[in-house]
Design a protein that fits this description.
CATH topology of one domain: hpI Integrase, Chain A
Radius of gyration: 23 Å
Helix content: 55-70%
CATH superfamily of one domain: Intergrase catalytic core
CATH architecture of one domain: Orthogonal Bundle
Structural class: mainly alpha
Strand order of the largest sheet: 1-2-3
Strand content: under 5%
Length: 308
């Protein structure tokens, strides 16, 4: 193993020990090292990093900036051991805003997505994506968490889903509604009939009996979005699969306010349910919905009691 490959292995191990998954990072850095090896380079230079970052054919500035930022982190690690390794400045390839505006799905939007699954080719794909999308909508799980869900992570007796070692290594249990449990049980029965011998313990499987791949799920979801007739609301507000999580969070807060519950308490509980590191990560959802802002304004007026 050459020194750069060995250093990459150590870098990934160190960061994963801190709780990072780094699946995409590992893929990109392996591609970067292959680029360096092709030219016989033994160290990281700013010129090589920039040239590689700009190699993506679509020319998206934010994607180029992300590629360079991945190299920057690795180069910083290398520089500690060998100062010949150059660290690209943060001023190079600056990116625009990273956070997209959430696309908040209505009940009608979700129904249209579920109906669109009928267009998928095989019965197994139809029931898999219908159940997967519905589960994301009613639990707010991350798509990666749903893909990693195994059959023994479902506790039908106590009505729980176990989400193990998710973002930042956190695990949690989700209480789910009996109707969601029945839908999962029905899916597993149909899946067993359509795919009797899967090669994985995963809940959601492909037609080949393997665990779903994130890239394939994304591709299929975008196709379902088009078939459902959902269109972007702006350049920064496009229907994404992750927005099912945003929609769940906003709906939970709206329901709490409508029922007269304390929003702060609900937000704290919701933060735990969603697996956020702290409630501050959940506060951002307040700005995603005009209805939520209106409820918050009403509560503030009541608190002030007419004072300016």
């Amino acid at each position: 193993m050459n020194p750069l490959r060995r250093a990459l292995s150590e870098y990934l191990s160190l960061r994963r020990a801190l709780g990072y998954k780094l699946v995409r990072t590992e893929k990109l850095l392996n591609q970067f090292l292959a680029y360096l090896e092709k030219d016989g380079a033994e160290i990281v230079t700013i010129e090589a990093a920039l040239n590689w970052a700009r190699r993506c054919t679509d020319g998206a500035v934010n994607w180029q900036a992300h590629r360079l930022s991945v190299v920057r982190g690795f180069a910083s690690h290398l520089h500690v051991r060998d100062v010949r390794n150059e660290i690209p400045s943060t001023d190079l390839l600056p990116s625009g805003p990273h956070r997209a505006n959430p696309y908040l799905y209505s009940d009608e939007d979700i129904a249209a997505l579920l109906a669109a699954t009928a267009s998928l080719k095989t019965p197994l794909r139809r029931i898999t994506f219908r159940t997967l999308i519905a589960l994301l909508a009613v639990t707010g799980m991350r798509i990666g968490e749903a893909i990693r869900l195994n059959r023994n992570d479902i506790d039908f007796r106590n009505g729980l889903l176990r989400v193990l070692l998710s973002k930042f290594g956190k695990s949690r249990e989700l209480v789910v509604h009996p109707t969601a449990l029945r839908a999962l049980a029905d899916y597993l029965r149909q899946r067993k009939r359509l795919s009797p011998s899967p090669s994985t313990a995963a809940v959601f499987t492909s037609s080949a009996g393997t665990r779903l791949l994130y890239c394939n799920v994304q591709w299929t979801f975008h196709r379902l979005v088009r078939l459902a007739g959902l269109s972007p609301r702006s350049a920064s507000c496009r229907p994404r699969i992750h927005d099912l999580r945003h929609s769940f969070a906003v709906r939970s807060l709206l329901d709490a306010y409508a029922a007269g519950k304390d929003g702060q308490t609900t937000l704290t509980l919701l933060s735990t349910y969603l697996g956020h590191v702290n409630p501050a990560c959940t506060y951002w959802y307040l700005s995603a919905s005009p209805e939520l802002l209106a409820f918050a304004a009403q509560r503030l007026e009541l608190h002030l009691g007419g004072r300016p």
